[in-house]
Write a structure and sequence with these properties.
heterodimer, A: 192 residues, mainly alpha, 77% helix, B: 170 residues
Chain lengths: 192, 170
């Protein structure tokens, strides 16, 4: 799937660049490569710091505390995972909690740890497991309690009530999540 | 405003809790930082590969062409033409989505229907392509099965529903 989408994006991009106004294509490539490296370098620092804090949560037993609070919804979303790999659930909880609180930098190391734990119980190492897909899908719906960036931009542009977007945003996130979970159940059969 | 105090308060809480539990905070933090560095090296090629395709697709004008191409469909689905770029850019690029949202708000007004829809799309879905290359890249999974297609269809369906039922939130 990702092969086809990736191929189509580049194919269409290059074809369009031929027919439209002349574009310096080498320039696009150079700038894209540079921006990726810049992104990775800025990720290096912030990931190292939040991975350090994550390690503290792990060693101090804080993640078990958080998990206890959210155990029930997790058991429903990830059936039987608790008996297979409990640590994966700890990290999933921390990832989702950080995302909800708008700490996306903190969420990433937890999410990656969750993926590593899920990979341990994955039978086919090069293929995504059902648990992984469900985790990514829940992540993509991005339930945020306070969409801080959106609120601040709305405030800057003179909205009459910038933070009134909070309720609707949560409602739409939950709707997206629900649709995604239903679609996942349907599509699961065709992508074994 | 809450977010300004939230991060330091959270870090303080983690540190104090760790000290009470007898964790060697400095050493453990260093171990974590090591893992953080390794992780970025693992995901770097996946991110570069995905960002390359996204940049070629966007900057060549293919994305704009797709937006034009989809115009007739929008009337059918009751999507205001102003928000189409937002629906298409959001899964591809986080920073791109922020600038498109700001554009829409400036053009149509921040509290307009278009501005509201753009804000909702911004806050209610993740940069799907980035998330997928990041998380699957980190464990070296190359066959992602239905992850991308499900996340994309869910995003589009949810956008269509938002456009049609935006009056609820007004």
């Amino acid at each position: 799937m990702v092969n086809i989408i990736w191929f189509l994006m580049i194919l269409l991009g290059i074809l369009v660049s031929f027919i439209s106004t002349p574009i310096d294509f080498t320039n696009i490539i150079a700038q894209s490569a540079e921006s990726s490296v810049k992104l990775c370098i800025s990720l290096l620092g912030i990931m190292a710091i939040w991975s350090g804090i994550m390690k503290l949560c792990e060693k101090s037993g804080l993640i078990e505390l958080f998990y206890a609070a959210l155990r029930l919804p997790m058991k429903i979303l990830f059936p039987h995972l608790e008996s297979k790999n409990k640590r994966a659930l700890y990290y999933i909880v921390m990832n989702l909690a950080s995302n909800m609180l708008g700490l996306s930098n903190a969420a990433t190391p937890f999410g990656i740890k969750a993926m590593e734990e899920l990979q341990k119980i994955n039978n086919k190492k090069d293929t995504a497991s059902d648990y992984m897909i469900k985790f990514i899908i829940i992540n993509s719906a991005c339930i945020q309690l306070i969409p801080a960036t959106v609120i601040s931009i709305r405030a800057n542009l003179g909205s009459s009530s910038p933070s009134s977007i909070i309720g609707p945003t949560i409602a739409v996130s939950i709707l997206t999540l629900f649709i995604a979970l239903v679609l996942e159940l349907i599509f699961r059969r065709w992508f074994k | 405003m809450i977010s300004i105090y939230f991060v330091p308060a959270f870090i303080l809480f983690v540190l104090v809790y760790s000290i009470i539990k007898g964790v060697k905070v400095y050493e453990v933090f260093v171990d974590g930082a090591k893992e953080g560095f390794k992780t970025v090296f693992n995901i770097a090629p996946y991110l570069l590969t995905m960002i390359f395709a996204i940049d070629v697709f966007r900057r060549s004008g293919a994305l704009d062409l797709l937006i034009k191409f989809l115009a007739p469909l929008n009337n059918l689905l009751n999507i205001p033409s102003g928000v189409v770029p937002m629906i298409l850019i959001k899964p591809l690029s986080g920073s791109g989505a922020i600038s498109v949202m700001t554009d829409i708000m400036k053009t149509y007004g921040v509290d307009s229907t278009e501005g509201l829809i753009a804000a909702l799309i911004m806050g209610s879905s993740e940069t799907i392509f980035y998330t997928i290359s990041l998380y699957f890249g980190s464990v070296g999974v190359k066959k992602i099965r239905h992850a991308l297609i499900v996340a994309l269809i869910a995003h589009i369906l949810s956008c269509i529903i938002v456009c049609n039922f935006i009056w609820i939130f007004r």
